[in-house]
Amino acid sequence: MLLRHGHHYNGKSSWTAAHERHLTRVRFEHPAQQIAFDEYRLAVRDASEHIERLTQSLREQCERWRMRDVVKALMCLRGFAYVAAITLLAELGDLNRFDHP
Known about the structure:
The protein has helices at residues 17-25, 31-62, 68-74, 82-92.
């Protein structure tokens, strides 16, 4: 929507605090366009809050999980953030069941 209406962001990366400040300054002439834009921003905010709640729930559950130490070990690898490590282990289950790496 922004690009279609000539609103370009010239910052280095999107979804940062600077990008959010830029979005607060974007205005559309037509009220319906402004409503749509505001709703898009609310949807992004709501989704971000939902992800944060789920991540927090995972953190709480992981504290009592027998695989907690393996999660921490996986996070030492480049590219394995918290949710990725938990997801991999939840999908694979007990790694000892594999005969060979």
